[in-house]
Amino acid sequence: MSIGMWILIIVGGAAGLLSTMYILVSLFAVIFHKLFRKIRHGISMFD
After folding, report:
1. CA 32 from centre of chain
2. Considering the entire predicted model, what is its pTM?
3. pLDDT attached to residue 17
4. Which residues span the domain enclosing 3?
5. 44 Cβ partners below 8 Å, 6+ apart?
6. DSSP code string of 1-47
7. Among positive and negative, which fits the CA dihedral 15, 21, 22, 23?
8. How many domains does the chain have?
């Protein structure tokens, strides 16, 4: 395999990994934020 193909594989893999990690972290951050607002301020979790 050529060096150009390896660069494409690495860049594509990194893009997929970073986007997956962003979605995973964001999911838990939103859930934590909604729980915190519910406990602290009594705001509905569905707003």
Report:
1. 14
2. 0.70
3. 98
4. 1-47
5. 38
6. --HHHHHHHHHHHHHHHHHHHHHHHHHHHHHHHHHHHHHHH---TT-
7. positive
8. 1
Q: Residue 29 and residue 13: Cα distance in Å, rounded?
A: 24
Structure confidence by residue, pLDDT tens digits, 1-47: 899 999 999 999 999 999 999 999 999 999 999 999 999 999 988 87
Determine the pLDDT at residue 1. 81
CA–CA distance, 16 with 5 (Å, rounded to integer)? 16
Residue type, 21: M
C-beta atoms surrounding 28 within 10 Å: 9
